Amino acid sequence: EKGGYEHFMLKEIYEQPSAISDTYRGRMLPDQGIIRMAGVDDNIERISNARRILIVACGTSWHAGLVAEYIFEDLARIPVEVEYASEFRYRNPIISENDVVIAISQSGETADTMAAIKLAKEKGAFVFGVCNVVGSSISRETHAGAYTHAGPEIGVASTKAFTTQITVLTLMALKLAKHKGTISNSDFRFHLQELERIPEKVKEALNSDEHIRGIADIYKNATNCLYLGRGFNFPVALEGALKLKEISYIHAEGYPAAEMKHGPIALIDEQMPVVVIATKKGHYEKVVSNIQEIKSRKGKIIAVVTHGDTEVRELADHVIEVPETMESLTPLLTTIPLQLLSYHIAVMLGKNVDQPRNLAKSVTVE
Ligand code: F6R
Predict the structure, then answer these.
(1) Cβ–Cβ contacts within 10 Å for residue 179, how many?
(2) Which of 225, 260, 257, 254 is closest to 238 using CA atoms?
(3) Phi and psi torsions of 84, nearest 5°
(4) Where do the SIS domain residues begin and end (predicted)?
(5) Which is more confident, 44 or 287?
(6) 330 lines ligand 1 (CB under 6 A)
């Protein structure tokens, strides 16, 4: 059942090239420059005229929502807010018929997300669901939706659900952008072509597995770890830290790279591994100077860089390459090494990777 893999998590990490193509297959026609998503097509005016989009989710799905915030605002020019479902509902939120709520949930059973949906519906908002489990409670409670089609995710640590959620939300943002005219036809086609190449590039990123295992071996006894990223890759830093925490029980925190100087930099010493996402285009020069700041305080740098990078290579203790793609699609690639790093560390520490202590696959309590 694990298809020859030692753990479900590893199997699911390796399934991402096919999971991502399953997500866009039948929806995206790059040659014709078309995206078809029934749940969006049927409600296109309501969604594209939204005063704002409010994304509600928990955990990894919330991180996918944060990536989507960058993508929706960049492409479709609709204001987006991302909320923890649990905080949204206890805050007397301001929400009306002019708002569109997107609820993201792998399991489709998360109690806090479900409660947020019910509240949003009561206030008249249109609620769109992005779920993986077909027929799940959330998929039934929402007005419309799009499935991720990632296939069953058994490992408690979410992996392929995250990348396929980002894929669905990217398709949705592109579709809205096209409808609203906030993207040119040529840009639109270019995005589709690049998205179509992502599964191949994820495979290339997976080729670093052995190299990453070597890095895991060096840092497996760390007691703390920082993850830094900017822009589209800031949420990836949060997700990388969550993966390490939940399966290896090593304390980790994700930060926007530029926030370092406002506090966390005090933590840096020779004991501190810092994972930095430093792909080309994404505020690259700024991230390079963040890396210099960490180096001068003797922190250990593990950098995720674009294939062929030379500048960061000179500064970092370790580099992990991912293929080049357009900036907005980099999270689909930069996530991969972070998943593998936490996986290998947890295995080396003898942790129960697929069923970490204190965690359940779907959190049906509030
Ligand atoms: C992290 C993880 C959790 C879930 C969260 C939401 O690896 O698995 O943080 O992402 O409990 O679950 P869903 O997406 O099922 O609503």
Answers:
(1) 18
(2) 254
(3) -65, 130
(4) 43-182, 215-356
(5) 44
(6) no
Secondary structure (3-state) at 220: coil
Phi–psi pair at 5, nearest 5 degrees = -85, 155
Hey, whose CA ends up nearest to atom 4 of ligand 1?
59
Give the ipTM of the model, two decimals please. Answer: 0.99
**43 within ligand 1 shell (Cβ under 6 A):** no
Closest approach atom of ligand 1 to CA 133: 15
Three-state DSSP class for residue 197: helix
What is the tens place of the pLDDT at every residue in 178-203?
A: 999 999 999 999 999 999 999 999 99
- Alpha-helical segments (H) within 225-283: 234-248
Task: Check if the beta carbon of residue 114 is closer than 8 Å to that of residue 104.
Answer: no
Per-residue pLDDT tens digits for 282-324: 788 888 999 999 999 999 999 999 999 999 999 999 999 999 9
**Does the pLDDT at position 334 exceed 90?**
yes
Say if ligand 1 is within 6 A of residue 158 CB.
yes
Measured in Å, residue 300 CA sits from the centre of ligand 1 at: 30
Q: How much is the pLDDT for 92? A: 87
148 lines ligand 1 (CB under 6 A): no
Residue 60 CA to ligand 1 center (angstroms) comes to 5
Nearest atom of ligand 1 to the alpha carbon of 162: 10
- Catalytic residue list contains 361: yes
Report the range of poorest mean pLDDT among 9-13, 225-229, 287-291.
287-291
C-alpha to C-alpha distance for 69 and 155, rounded to whole angstroms: 26
